[in-house]
Write a structure and sequence with these properties.
Chain lengths: 163, 505
Amino acid sequence: MSKGHTPSTETRRPDRAALVIAVFLAALGGLIFWDASRLASMGGYSGIGPATVPFVIAGSLLILAVWTVFEALRGDFPARDRQEVGPVVWIVGGLVLQMLLLKTAGFSIATGVLFAATAAAFGKRKLWMTIPVGILICLGVWLIFAGLLQLSLPAGPLEHLFW
Amino acid sequence: MNTFDFLMQGLLVAAQPMNLLYALIGVTLGTAVGVLPGIGPALTVALLLPVTYQLDPGGSLIMFAGIYYGGMYGGSTTSILLNTPGESASIVTALEGNKMARAGRGGPALATAAIGSFVAGLIATMALALIAPFVVKLALVFGPREYFALMVLAFVTVSSAFGDSTLRGLTSLFIGFALAIIGIDQLTGQTRMSFGVPDLLDGIEVTTLAVAMFAIGESLYIAAQGDLGPDKVEAVRGSVWMNRQDWARSWKAWLRGTAIGFPIGAMPAGGAEIGTFLSYATEKRLTKYPEEFGNGAIEGVAGPEAANNASAAGTLVPLLTLGLPTTATAAIMLAGFQQYGLQPGPLLFATNPQLVWGLIASLLIANFMLLVLNLPLVGLWVKLLTIPKPWLYAGILLFATLGTIGANPSVFELGMLLAFGVLGYVMRIFGYPIAPVVVGLILGPLAEQQLRRALAISQGDVTVLFTSPIAAVLLLIAAAALIIPLILRARGRGEVLAQLAASED
């Protein structure tokens, strides 16, 4: 799985992506610190309050961020596989569409679209076929889970035909 | 009443017809989902949690017990018939099992895994029943600082003692902690990290996080590898039954695997998969057929599989008696308890003995059901393995979102599912372990509570954490578990630890 990345022959370059992770960790720590400082005066008699643990976590995240910078500069992060962007966009897009459609179109249509998008991410691109199949499967799932197991799954026009 | 009476009572509860039906549904669903490639026990349990929402606590936990054991069985079938590197929980089983399947001995490999799991599950569940009352008694003398020290130990072993990097393990753990403080503080009622968003007041659901990280993160990662061609599923040729020699070579391995796996699982520390590696190493050393190792030695399947199941039962000891989850699967089971307002721990044995012992007894029953179900139905499970990837992952995402929508039909919850899914994907790319995030999310608030109680009693004096002998020893072990691997890795001996990685999926 590892292509290249032989530290002995290659000069170690700083790992940009790992530096981004370090920035993210530091930002997360800063956010927690900022949020907890509102509560800092609530320590009460013992000085231990709702802000104590968030402060510790924020501090630890900052330390981890610094540590990540060191490992990034030394090139200690493992080699990464090449990632294809297309399939990721398909799946994320499917999830976003499902989220947007859920309330209006109901569970079956929204999830059917997600189903087809996921299948497309793995190479089945015939959407005119996969979307109807997905919607039918999801309708079946809806009938079992909302009908028999009484899980509250949002109903849309399709579901109202049956229930 | 002694343990035996309690267990008999539990069996009476578990043997009620409805509960038997729940157990049967549980094991069937658990096996069917667990057998799907890319779905480990943790995800199986997380995906199927919503199915139990409408049942009463007793029935739901019994179904859950079935799902847990069923998922374990299903996973071993996958690794024998489909060599899936990356599922490190059953990597050892795949080592020899897949070789056996390729040599046309898939049947006996599945049989020794199933029977070994049964034997190990039986012994380990009995051991769980015997040990639990003692641990409960011990737990009663634990105060907040001892609990806190115990949790620190669990944090260290789950995140950084094993795996290939202390930094990345700890980072995962602290991301879990950061997510855990979102919501209302349990002791003062103050809101933290919720920025006025009402949906965040209840905090992050463990099941949402687990499903997002394991199901969506994994699907994204697999999809992003591009088309690697179809996986090769080994057909089960010939008899599924073991011959006399198979039996002779298997039974000692089963018992040794159980003896190795259970104590490791039962320890209130993470890293339950170590047992499978130790068992494999033991079998390799003791075997009379060393030349077969690496080419499909049956002991190499029997031992680790037994160890795997025994440590799965073992992890229920700290979970039930101390409320301490030490694997991602156990963390999700704890979430299952919490949805009924039940907090596992010594109190649960006192206030709700019927429930606890009913659960333990139904583990025994689930174990029997699996043995009866699994071997005859192996053909069906093999069919599930051959589902083409597009449909398989489309189905996984369908059920992943179904669970989230069923628990909380809000667009915001789906948004979190997507966000954590992407986070899980990015973490996979960079080699961050997932299990510490889940354990940190669920155990973080419990640890904070104990810490703040301990410090409130001492009026803010931190030294009190070290002045109790039990707490001091636990913290010392935790420090050792943090520092020793760091030194080992710095001196280039990290490969062994990387192999012992306790990642669940």
